[in-house]
Amino acid sequence: MDNQADSYRFTSQEVLCPAERKAGKTPCCSTLKMFIVALSFAYFSKALSGTYMKSSITQIERRFDLSSSLVGLIDGSFEMGNLLFLALVSHFGAKMHRPRLIAVGCLLMAVGSALTGLPHFFMGRHHPLRPMNLYRCVSLSFPECVKDPGSNMWIYVFLGNALRGIGETPVTPLGISYIDDFAKAENSAFYIACLQTITLLGPMFGFLLGSMCAKLYVDIGFVNVDTVTITPKDARWVGAWWLGFFVSSAIMLLSGIPFWFLPRSLPKQGKENKELPDTQQQHPGITSVHSFLPSLKKLLSTPTYFLLLCGSVLKFNSFIGLLTFKAKYMEQQFGQSASRANFLIGVLNLPVVAVGIFLGGLLMKRYKLSVVAGAQLSFLTSFTAYLLLLLQYGTKCDNIQVAGLTVSYNGTPGISHDKQWLFSECNRNCSCRAEEWDPVCSENGITYVSPCLAGCTGSTGHGKHTMFHNCSCVLLTPPPAEGSASVTLGQCPRGADCSRSFTSYMAVSVLSSFINSLGSTPGYMIIIRCIKPQLKSLALGIQTLVMRTLGGIPAPVYFGAFIDSSCLKWGMKKCGGRGACRLYDSDMYRLIFLGLITCLSGSAYFFIIALIVLLRQQFAKEDKRTAEQAPKPGQIELKVPCDFKKEFPVQTLTGTKESLEPRAMQVTKEAGHEEAVTANELQACPVEQCPDVDRPAEQTLNPANGQTEVQKNTVCDSQHTDAKSDVM
């Protein structure tokens, strides 16, 4: 045995403890892979529901005549409901039946999605247009309005989205901690990468579902679609926003079923034939609330966690703002319909993000990247994507020419927010209302706010094929042969230059999304590897809580408020009051939208750089300490735990085996053991097989007598109370 001192750890563990333990029975369906499959479907379902909400923002805004800031508040209600219970579920949920808590969450999300789409059935039919005779340049008196009975129904959308947020609370922190508790350390990153990759199928299908529903008219099945005179590209078009919420509700309901049948705990991967630890077999259902605050204090006092938290909040703000208003940006900047914008995001951006996340996890597993290397990879990919984002400032389209808003009636460019500019000598005698938005397009490429403001006095055709004639405000060069200028329904299309700019924008967007996603899994593993195991679930929950509170709730609101400041033409509700915006200043929209994203992301890099420096210093110290504590060749260590008498601290004795025998006998006798462990009793076992018996004892509260008891943290505590020594 002396010749094997360098590669074996000498221990009395095999003398004091039996080598074999009775294997516990593995419950039915208690495999880790089955849990990962079920959790992947739950992640897919909740991601589909959440991204469908994002894709329906424009439709909800138009249907309820809301501003971007208010619809951003509705979108943020998900985070409001989520943060109400997130911290408590993350802390106490780890001690309870985690799969069943996830099942309850899926049920709540299903109910919340159904409640979100329910207001459609209590509202009247959507009537975005007035009778055709009110469009023309004639003197008319406007009828009195009748208040829309569904004007305040958006509150139910708010509540349904909040309930969905409450249901999502246990899924992420408890699911990730469940996997990490029972998976091998080298497989944990790969499993989480697979989980996130499958999860991204949810947003992809969510945006595709949003694209399909945006094509369908809101009152489909109740009105004749052929009589609708507007198209999906019109700012007044409202798609069947409610339909997707019922589809996502049914999927969420199905995703929660498997968790009702999964066990409370699983065997540690690679140790399926060993009995589960007592801490996993006897999870208390209720734990003391006094343990929460010390755990939270210990967590927030960890510098690496705090820096990661600050950087994550800033990045999450930019991500939420981008995800919420990206489709709307594509509509207003490049003239795309909501349906096409959602479709392109679903089939171009999200698939490459899924591939990037999967490759990032594969890199972690293939090259076994350390925490520092993972943080550096995450920073490098994120910063490269950030530089590509700056190129989007140059991909733009000019404002569409709208008489009285972006150009004068004689064609002179100029932005105006004054509604008096909508009136000119050519339409002074018409009974026109500046609040109306019924755009028509002339042959000269200029859009007019309405046929009335274009000075039109006659019309022909029906429905979508209606044309207006004798438009006195339309200036054509040369003048028409018949002496009469005509306009057609809808805004004028954008030019070919705008189509090329949009192609460049999508190419840069897809490439930056892929590069940024490569560092997603390595960055996520920082919190897994740098936090103590007993704080892991709480750390994930607090991170999600803070990101929801400081990012998920305020980001859509202030993004929407800044976007509202670039509005040139507001819609009008039936009985007065400002409705949804109909036309934006596209140049101002671009600067505000991209400016907010770049400022928030750029600020986050200061914290990320500080985190990397701190991690490098921390792991350099640990490597140095490990090298110093390693026994020299030909020597072994004797560690005597303090389990026997509290007055004896852990003692480490270094030397050869022959010289340690008398010292081992003396120390173990002083520790209260009647018969000292001699060198002949020390057995040899490979280093990786030797259990750690040198963990400090824990104090627990016995609920039966209210007394504090010492609980030993060694694998032999359940069978022996005598002395233990570990010779290394």
**Tally of helical runs:** 21
**Whole-number mean pLDDT:** 75
Find the count of extended strands (DSSP E, 2+ residues).
14
Shape assignment: elongated
What is the spatial order of strands in the main beta sheet? 3-2-6-5-4
Distance between the termini: 13 Å
Biased composition (Basic and acidic residues): 719-728
Biased composition (Polar residues): 699-718
Domain Kazal-like: 420-475
Subcellular location: Cell membrane
Structural description of this entry:
The protein has 728 residues and is α+β, with helices and mostly antiparallel strands. It is 50% helix and 8% strand. Helix 7 packs antiparallel against helix 18 (536-552) and helix 8 runs antiparallel to helix 14. The longest helix is centred in the last third of the chain and has 44 residues, at 586-629. The radius of gyration is 33 Å and the shape is elongated. The protein starts with 7 loop residues before the first strand and ends with a strand. Mean pLDDT is 75; it is low at 1-30, 275-288, 638-653 and 673-728. Pfam families: Kazal_2, OATP. Residues 420-475 form the Kazal-like domain. InterPro entries: Kazal_dom, Kazal_dom_sf, MFS_dom, MFS_trans_sf, OATP.
Short structural description:
50% of the residues lie in helices and 8% in strands. With 728 residues, it is of the alpha+beta class.
Describe the SSE topology.
Elements: E1 8-11, H1 13-16, H2 32-55, H3 57-63, H4 68-93, H5 98-117, H6 154-168, H7 171-182, H8 185-199, H9 201-215, H10 241-255, H11 278-281, H12 292-300, H13 303-334, H14 338-367, H15 371-390, E2 440-442, E3 447-448, E4 458-460, E5 467-469, E6 487-489, H16 496-518, H17 520-529, H18 536-552, H19 554-564, E7 567-572, E8 578-584, H20 586-629, E9 636-640, E10 651-655, H21 657-670, E11 683-686, E12 698-701, E13 708-711, E14 726-727
Antiparallel strand pairs: 1-11, 2-3, 2-6, 4-5, 5-6, 7-8, 9-10, 9-14, 12-13
